[in-house]
Amino acid sequence: MKEVTWKSPSNIALVKYWGKYPVQIPANPSISFTLSAAATTTTLKYAPGNGQIEVFLEGVSTPSFLPKIKTFLERTAEQFPFAGTLDMEIHTSNSFPHSSGIASSASGMSALALCLMSVKQALGLPVENFFEEASEAARLGSGSGSRSVYGPLAAWGTHRDITGSSDRWAVAYDDVADVFKSFQDTILLVDKGEKVVSSTVGHGLMEGHTYAEARFAQAHTNQSELLTCMRNGDIEGFGAIVESEALTLHAMMMSSRPYFILMKPNTLKVIEAIWAFREKTGNPLYFTLDAGANVHLLYPKSHKDVILQFIDSDLRTFCKDGSYLCDEVGQGPKQL
Ligand code: DP6
Questions:
Q1: CB 118 near ligand 1, within 6 Å
Q2: What is the pTM for the complete model shown?
Q3: pLDDT beneath 70, residues of the chain
Q4: Taking the domain 2-175, which CATH number applies?
Q5: How do the domains of the chain map onto residue ranges?
């Protein structure tokens, strides 16, 4: 068998994608920091065949992944028409623990999309824009995955201030002050359990949501304001928009029908402690949340020492088994 390997990072949204139309078209634009340490490495082994697929997670055969991969290959049949003429073994592993509550769909789907793009190239099929096509394919696997193919930031969804932005693929974005290119993201693992409601179901609940139209319009405005803050190096302005986006995401969950809550009591305790610390010390420490209870702490690299001390002394107690992961803005995927 021939093989190809890509390592693709996770990402954390600053303006949140929440709500979509068929097939995987976002209801609003989003922008994210590409991460560095949290990543999926996927090796795709392939040989001529008839579409047999086997998936291995951390070396162990994992047939439960097959339905998602088959759906992905159906959706990307136009881009990867050769998939049915090959037998494939997909070997995938994550740099973060499976039970950490960190979503592997963005990094996993982007790693697989990149592998298939490399196979496409190796088979001599025409490829015009490798990363754009990889991003589009990743999107069809998982919306946020479209943003994992570029660093240091990526924007997905048509937005008036981003030239070339598209609902079909993400674009790289780096028109930001240097401070944001080395921003830190320390992920507090508040809860490692299975989510009570999946992202896919949550997106669906935005259909007919009382606040949907206002929320989608707000995301456009927040993205414009965030871009201005990041271009100007305005960390305080950045933090205010990012925290508001996180709380709005969870407010949408709490006000959908059926309603649900993904935060845990310790999520709120962490948020209160961050606000008190900021008030008392003036340190630029901000948070964001994804669709779960874990808290992403965002701060400039220059404040790393004092903030890591604060995490150990005041925040660690709110983490399951005292665990957290240190990450930072990264440069995007790598072929290995
Ligand atoms: C809250 O990309 O996981 O993390 O497209 O159904 O796979 P699917 O959803 P997914 O949704 C991510 C939602 C979010 C916000 C974000 O990453 O923008």
A1: no
A2: 0.98
A3: none
A4: 3.30.230.10
A5: 2-175, 178-328
